[in-house]
Amino acid sequence: MYLIMTSIYEKAHKYISKKDISWDIAVWKAFDSNQNLIYKKNTRLNKRVENIVTNENAVFYTLTLTDKALNTITLDHLQREAQAWARKNLIRFVGNLDYGDELEHTGRPHFHIIGNYKDKPTYDTWPYGAINFKRVYNPDHKRIKNYILKLSLHATKKTACKIFKSKEI
What we know:
Layout: H1 2-18, H2 23-53, E1 58-63, H3 67-72, H4 75-89, E2 90-98, E3 110-117, E4 131-135, H5 141-154, E5 163-165
Antiparallel strand pairs: 1-3, 1-4, 2-3, 2-5
Helix pairs in contact: 1-2, 2-5
């Protein structure tokens, strides 16, 4: 929320510097612009996830991390490794870093990725921990998209969780 508010604040100042308008109108325009960007991003993500889950080889992956990986490698680097793993093993994908529900789970970082596999998935291709995967048989792309979006928006307050994705095919 802080980043969005900073962005709105900055956009409002730009509107005022370009046009002779009041602060209230500038903030409204900046907020409206941000809402439009969020809507467009959500629409693109929804379409991408829909394209993935309607394919017969859609799989939902969880890539876990060992204590050794967590203690010796930065999360930024691990996220780049997760994205590289997805590029190597999947045709298209959407993924993100998740910390789990701190009340019910360990709160350990791990990655969720939904994608279309190139070859049948195996358990031995992720060197930083374990791989769990499940085929998507009854796709509810909106539910999966909302889950991934929710995780990226508020999975943690300490690091920025970004969605990573394949280039569109």
